[in-house]
Amino acid sequence: MSRRESPPPPPPPPPPSSSPPPPALLGMRGGEMEREERPERAEPLSDAEREIVQDTWGRVYEHCEDVGVSVLIRFFVNFPSAKQYFSQFQDMEDPEEMERSSQLRHHARRVMNAINTVVENLNDPEKVSSVLALVGTAHAIKHKVEPMYFKILSGVMLEVMAEDFPECFTPEVQMVWTKLMGAVYWHITGAYTEVGWVQVSSSAV
Question: According to the model, what pLDDT value does residue 90 have?
Fold first, then answer.
């Protein structure tokens, strides 16, 4: 383009929406995810599905800390913006350093223990709802964690479990676990909605 030529004018901005997006459930910045509405409530697990979850989880939970650490390392390596919520290891880049971190191991146990509480109480929906409401409320109000991170973390957890326990995490079992994680996410996002979650501004990517 010559100096005399001027670039075409940029297109006009789109008109403002008549209704602003809801304050709840806004996704990450940096192009990692887009805003997402609260998902529809998942179908409850059948008796057979609950048995599948509890049987396979029993094998995973025997290696609670190691699996939890593997999950968090992959989570933080693939989605480094998640580290912004953890002052103890937000500057760690090396997976081996993360693995040696006592703080990371402590949080890994907390994550795994929370899932264990859900699995142990699958026959008591009110207990599950209560536990996940506490988790969601704490992460919304105290920690200011964007809810979409729960969805990512559950996906990473399913990946790690399927890789580490291929003999029991068949495609059928993975489908059941995906259904369970969808229900977990539904309950947690419900807690965010209840407290009037508003996206927290941050420059982290």
Answer: 85
